[in-house]
Each structure stands twice: as structure tokens, then as C-alpha cells.
Design a protein that fits this description.
- The chain is α/β, with parallel strands linked by helices and 325 residues long.
- The protein contains 12 helices and 9 strands.
- The longest helix is centred in the C-terminal third of the chain and has 22 residues.
């Protein structure tokens, strides 16, 4: 077991940490015209997940920004939630400054860095995560904080629900075993690029898995969401493709489920390897469970490929390059 494995074992600890260190912000979603969640990579995926989880409950639009700038409509009636594990993500720092200049209400989630310096100087509400993890291995902290922030905004009791979620991961071994079984089923095909096909609700789960395969396993992984991919990408599915297809879906729409069945049959014609991950319910527990299993799968793929799942040289080289320009 390497450092990444040990970090993933602390998933329940991370969730409980966020629950125990959460502080009320005293806001309501109806205080705002819109909510924007800003962050990138491991610090940004939580926003996409929260947006999907609460999409049918929020009375105002929720959007995610993974860039340097806010949309033009952001103003004093906008709530901006900025997230950066290191606190030094330059895009998120840029968004913070722009949100402040536009008069937006700002909340922050971080471990420190420049973002913490800014929030301290401005008296901005800030929730702190524990240091010492790779951002992509700290989702238990960031996602849980965002769930609790959104729950309070909506007047929902997410604290008790999240305590139940944390308890589900106290014994992580069953999830490791499930992940290993899935890995064994795809082991012979991991030399192929990964194609993740999702329904709309599960698209952020697919993106998270792709991020983990890309960073941990140093391997190509692409995400296509239905029904949109049926209007373009499907036309590239002829003949034998050197791809492993992973379906992640919650069967929330019968028409989308029918599209998935069609795709499965289409791919079977050429004997492509397909894997189906179905969420029996689309709720907090099921989302956390699927993400956790797939995080383990990404580490098993990395180990099988004999790559370093901890370090990210290309990303570090990019950061160094940007520091020079």
C-alpha cells in the first residue's frame, strides 16, 4: 500500500472532520439570485457534484466556474463559493478578487495559502480543511463542506445525513473488495483508453473518475454524457475500437435508459468490453459510495500500470512555466 492508498482509507475521517468543523454561515438560497461555485480539479469537482445532487431542490440557479473569471451576471445578489485545497490556485484567486470587486457574497473552503490570507484580511467566512493530502485525495473534506453549505442554504438537515454517510465508510474494506472485483473484470483491457458514458445526473461522477484515472493512473479517459453524445459521438462507434466503455447511470429518465441499452447493444456487436455502474438511488450516500469505489479502481489501475499515482510531473511543470511568464 502506498501513500495514496493510505490517504483513501481516511475517507470517513475526512467526512467526519468536515462535519465536526463546519460553522453556520446563516444564509438562505433565496437571499440570492444565483450561486456560483468556483474551483478546479480535485477542488472543483465537489461543486459539480453538489450542483447535480441538489439540482431539484435549489430555488436559484447553481453554476460552476473552473476559470479565471466570473460570468457577467455575477453581482451583489450572487453567492460565490471559492474552493482551493492549497489556497494558491491562481484561477480561484482571480475569481475571489473579481467576486469582491463585483460585491458578491463570498464563502471559502481551503487549507490556507493566498486564499486564506485574503479571507482573513477581508473577514470572509472560511472553512478549513486539514493539510497533508493531495487535493484529489481530499474530496471527503471539500465535498462534505459543500454539501453542508448547500444544505444550510436550502434549510435541509444534511448534517445528520452526512453522519450516516461517514459511518458507511468506517469499514472501508468492502469498498476495496468491490473495487478490486471491478478492476479484475477490466484488467485485460486497461491498455485501452477509457470511455465513460453517463446520464446527466451522473456526469460529475464520470468526470471525477476520469480525473482520477488521468492523474493517478496517467492514462487517457474521456467522458460523454447522454443524450448529447447520441447526437455526435455515437457516429464514431463503427468497427472495433481500442476503448474500454464504462457506463455510470441512475436510470432517472426512461428515454436516457433506452439510449444506454441501445449503446450497450451497439458496442456488443464488435465484442467491446463494457461495464455498467448503476445507482439504485441518486442520493448523497450512493454518490459518495460510487466515487469511493472508483477512486480505488483508479489506484488499482495505476498499480497495474506501474506508474506513480502520487506525483504529477506534467502539472508541476505547467505551474513552473506559468510562474515564469
Amino acid at each position: 500500500m502506498n501513500e495514496q492508498h493510505e490517504a483513501l482509507k481516511k475517507f470517513s475521517y475526512q467526512i467526519n472532520y468536515a462535519i465536526n468543523n463546519y460553522q453556520s454561515h446563516g444564509l438562505k438560497a433565496t437571499d440570492f439570485n444565483n450561486i456560483i461555485i468556483a474551483g478546479l480539479g480535485g477542488s472543483g469537482i465537489g461543486g459539480q457534484l453538489v450542483k447535480s445532487i441538489f439540482s431539484n431542490q435549489s430555488p436559484v440557479p447553481v453554476s460552476c466556474v473552473a476559470d479565471y473569471n466570473l460570468p457577467a451576471y455575477a453581482n451583489e445578489k450572487t453567492l460565490v463559493i471559492t474552493g482551493s485545497y492549497s489556497g494558491n490556485t491562481e484561477e480561484t484567486i482571480s475569481v475571489y478578487h473579481e467576486a469582491k470587486n463585483k460585491g458578491c457574497k463570498i464563502l471559502a473552503v481551503t487549507t490556507g495559502g493566498k486564499l486564506a490570507d485574503l479571507t482573513k484580511a477581508d473577514g470572509t467566512y472560511t472553512l478549513f480543511m486539514e493539510k497533508g493530502f493531495q487535493p484529489r485525495m481530499a474530496l471527503g473534506f471539500s465535498l462534505t463542506y459543500l454539501v453542508l453549505i448547500m444544505g444550510e442554504l436550502l434549510g435541509a438537515d444534511t448534517v445528520n445525513e452526512m453522519k450516516s454517510v461517514a459511518n458507511a465508510f468506517e469499514d472501508y474494506q468492502p469498498f476495496v473488495d468491490d473495487a478490486n472485483a471491478m478492476f479484475e473484470s477490466i484488467k485485460s483491457k486497461i491498455k485501452y483508453k477509457f470511455i465513460v458514458l453517463t446520464d446527466g445526473a451522473c456526469e460529475p461522477i464520470g468526470i471525477r473518475f476520469a480525473q482520477q484515472i488521468q492523474e493517478n493512473a496517467k492514462h487517457e479517459c474521456f467522458v460523454h454524457a447522454l443524450p448529447e453524445m447520441n447526437h455526435n459521438v455515437i457516429e464514431s462507434y463503427y468497427g472495433t475500437l481500442e476503448s474500454l466503455f464504462i457506463f455510470i447511470h441512475a436510470n432517472l429518465n426512461d428515454r436516457v435508459s433506452a439510449r444506454i441499452s441501445f449503446l450497450d447493444g451497439l458496442l456488443e456487436v464488435e465484442a467491446h468490453k463494457t461495464v455498467h455502474i448503476e445507482l439504485e438511488q441518486f442520493n448523497l450516500l450512493s454518490v459518495y459510495e460510487v466515487i469511493y469505489r472508483l477512486d480505488w479502481v483508479s489506484l488499482f489501475v495505476a498499480d497495474e500500470r506501474r506508474v506513480d499515482s502520487l506525483n504529477v510531473p506534467n502539472i508541476m511543470d505547467l505551474k513552473h512555466y506559468l510562474d515564469q511568464v
